[in-house]
Design goal:
Number of domains: 2
Strand content: 25-35%
Strand order of the largest sheet: 6-7-8-3-9-10
Shape: globular
CATH topology of the largest domain: Rossmann fold
Helix content: 25-40%
Distance between the termini: 41 Å
Number of helices: 11
Amino acid sequence: MASTDIIIQTENLTKKFGSVTAVNALSLAVRRGEIFGLVGPDGAGKTTTIRMLAAIMNPTAGKATVAGYDTVKQGEAIKHHIGYMAQQFNLYGDLSVLENITFFADIFAVRGKTRRERIDRLLHFARLTEFTDRRAGKLSGGMKKKLALACALIHQPNILYLDEPTTGVDPVSRREFWDILADLHIQGVTILVSTPYMDEAERCSRVGLMYGGSMIECDTPQNLKSQVVGDLLELRPVSPTARGIGLLRRAQAAVESLDGVLEVQTFGDLLHIFVDDAAARQSAIIAALSAENIEAQNVRHTRPQMEEAFISLVRRAEATAAGEKNDTATK
């Protein structure tokens, strides 16, 4: 990978808050023009990472460069190259849609004919042309997100940071938001987006899986899914004597020690069972459930998605960390 292709780079980037390490020795390289997803649960370090890359927060150790600028030494220069959309709605609720965009245009010294053209284009782009006079505080969740995005784009940044941009919005608004991001991607904007949603991770060029402040894997969605070992059997356990989480736990306990079973995950009201050979193990799994008065419904052989891959990779990282801790304790 040529160095000119890299627009965001970190080397052992670390942030500590007292005794808590929020980001631990993070090293990554984001290519120019890609959609890079930071994926992980709450507390994984995604927001802290983005805030350091936006030059809002200084690292405790390590370094980062954005568009060739050091985030600590040249933070002001970076802010002209980036658009930043925070996790929480941070616009002015008492101002109208148009007044909010105009305010951000003033901040970035976008004036005259250029300002009018950009505002008109962004309102159309964000599908807000019919709501210019509505106060931002009265917008729906999805419309607030699109307004925040429009404000982040007013100065035409070539890098866009989005911190969980679709959290709390309805599925239709999520889809519309990602359609807008796809258009920006086509235009060559580099997008760094954090998300807890694994279906959104599927839309990224590459994904970094964060857990406990560390990057446990970084690759394309397809390659990450291919790291999950074994075939995947999906089924719905049904029993006249149990339901809900209690039923799922009983079903999991009934099959997890069977020959050929590599891993068991719950997925809503479904059981996902990873096995070495689906055809060879399916009948034994159904029989083991039946012995516990559990019927296996809708059994099918399927492929793992990002959510299964993430859970599997996290468990693998936890097992490795536990093994290293035990080795250290016995020395």
